[in-house]
Amino acid sequence: MTRDALLNLLAEVERGGLSAEAAAERMKSLPFEDIGHSRVDHHRSLRSGLPEVIYAAGKTAQQTLEIFDRLAAGGVDVLATRAEPATAELVLARFPAAVYHPTAKTISLRQSSPPGQSRGHIAVVCAGTSDVPVAEEAAVTAETFGARVSRIFDVGVAGLHRLLAVREELTSAHVVIVCAGMEGALPSVVGGLVPVPVIAVPTSVGYGASFAGAAALLGMLNSCSPNVTVVNIDNGFGAAYTAVLIARASIRELNGVKAPDFLGALP
């Protein structure tokens, strides 16, 4: 349940259009719903502003579908990451409006209305085409939660002129996500070009001594650009989730809007 949905429900009770008993019935799954194999967190939107996301890897297709179904029933935007085609086929049969993004391995279902105002601009950058799956996971995640996304792909440091050619687009973003493997140098370069937070995502792309992304991770952690922070290897989702929160906070600050007190809703 989103904060707006909860406020509308309470307003309906206040107007007399809905009984307290009926409202309690609708809210009975808060803060979570136990469906046997999982406890679905319906309260997360109220606490953090974004709903729970399904990590489909390690789950059966049926388990993913059941969690997806319960989240969708709450009216939130639903996202499943690391979803294989068989899982996507089962979910899309139940939710034809959902979209499977095979490169990103994500399933998304938008149920909220388009925002009346911008929820922020996020640039998703990757060093090479081999990094695109991780970059796409980040891009789809950010788009699912209402951000405007610019995809800037294949601009690695081996051809620095490619990056400089898109500098204006980079500097217009509220947050920049940079995905890179090999030696992981790209986020430091981007960090020196933009006046906004840069979230670095090391990817498991590279030859033997890259150690499946460990070399890029260590390089990014040792960045000399102070606006660079780092998430885990191949974690495009985590980068985007954080970027969305940063972008929204930037928009609220520009508009002079106080952030909602989600924690105030906790018992």
Would you give an account of this structure?
39% of the residues lie in helices and 16% in strands. It has 267 residues and is of the alpha/beta class. The protein folds into two domains: 3-109, no CATH class; 121-254, Rossmann fold (3-Layer(aba) Sandwich), CATH 3.40.50. The chain has a five-stranded parallel β-sheet. It has a four-stranded mixed β-sheet with strand order 3-4-6-5, with helices on both faces. A two-stranded antiparallel sheet has the order 1-2. The longest helix is centred in the C-terminal third of the chain and has 20 residues, at 236-255. The two termini are 16 Å apart.
SSE layout:
Layout: H1 3-15, H2 20-26, E1 32-34, E2 39-41, H3 44-48, E3 54-55, H4 61-73, E4 78-81, H5 85-94, E5 99-101, E6 106-109, E7 121-126, H6 132-144, E8 148-152, H7 160-164, H8 167-171, E9 175-180, H9 186-191, E10 198-202, H10 214-221, E11 228-230, H11 236-255
Parallel strand pairs: 3-4, 7-8, 7-9, 9-10, 10-11
Antiparallel strand pairs: 1-2, 4-6, 5-6
Helix pairs in contact: 4-5, 6-11
The CATH topology of the largest domain is: Rossmann fold
Strand content: 15-25%
CATH class of the largest domain: Alpha Beta
Q: How many structural domains? A: 2
Uncertain residue segments: 259-267
- Terminal Cα span: 16 Å
Mean pLDDT: 85
Question: In oligomeric terms, what are we looking at?
Answer: single chain
Please give the radius of gyration in angstroms: 20 Å
What is the number of helices? 11
Strand tally:
11
Q: How does CATH name the architecture of the largest domain?
A: 3-Layer(aba) Sandwich
SS-derived structural category: alpha/beta
Largest sheet: 5 strands, parallel
Q: What is the N-to-C order of secondary-structure elements (H for helix, E for strand)?
A: HHEEHEHEHEEEHEHHEHEHEH
Shape descriptor reads: globular
